[in-house]
Amino acid sequence: MEKRNLVELIAHNSYPGRGICVGRTADGTHAAIAYFIMGRSSNSRNRIFVEDGEGIRTEAHDPSKMEDPSLIIYAPVRVLGTKTIITNGDQTDTVYEGLDSQKTFEQSLRGRRYEPDGPNYTPRISAVLHLVPGGCNYAISILKSADGDPASDHRFTYSYSPALPGEGHFISTYLHDGNPLPSFEGEPVRVAVGNDLDEFTKGIWDALDADNKVSLFTRFIDLGDGSYVSRIVNRHHL
Known about the structure:
- It is a single chain.
- This protein is an alpha+beta fold and 238 residues long.
- The longest helix is centred in the last third of the chain and has 11 residues, at 197-207.
- The protein has one domain (6-237): Inosine monophosphate cyclohydrolase-like (Glutamine Phosphoribosylpyrophosphate, subunit 1, domain 1).
- It is 15% helix and 40% strand.
- A hairpin with a 2-residue loop joins β3 (47-52) and β4.
- It contains five helices and 13 strands.
């Protein structure tokens, strides 16, 4: 698979929905994470990311305008020891609890399905990044309906071990805008990852559709000592 430019990939898509990118910096010294959310409705756009312990959670920007918190209020990022969990829904907690009980990533998600938001049936996308001596590895999962048919679940998990310097993998909930929204298809996209967190963050944020982007979280994790530096960008706080 050709290594793509993540910024160009996003810039040519008005509505990938929610997206996860996990990888390793070009110099090999850090793991790299990005998670963004977008929204077409006023309820979806009425959100911000806030820090929550070592992770983040979504929160209503204006609580008085919150219509329905289900599916949009959750913790997208949580940390369990040397593992960082990133998802587009409350399955973050499911994965955290599963891993904490010695289940595998796949086993932890076995009881979950796509989101109950027909006719879109939004996929649940999830990733876990694991720091290991001298490097890291990661896995990405997507739980989706059978091409829009809720009668069947399609489950795919992709593992990358060890993570290679200068590259990552990107997955989003949707292929592009539409009605209903078409679910992501195929393997996570192989993308290039640089060495500068602020450049990484700005590139993604600027590439996201101006009308639909809501929030972005990025993090570089030092593979030597596990320390990290994060960035949060919220459209409502600009």
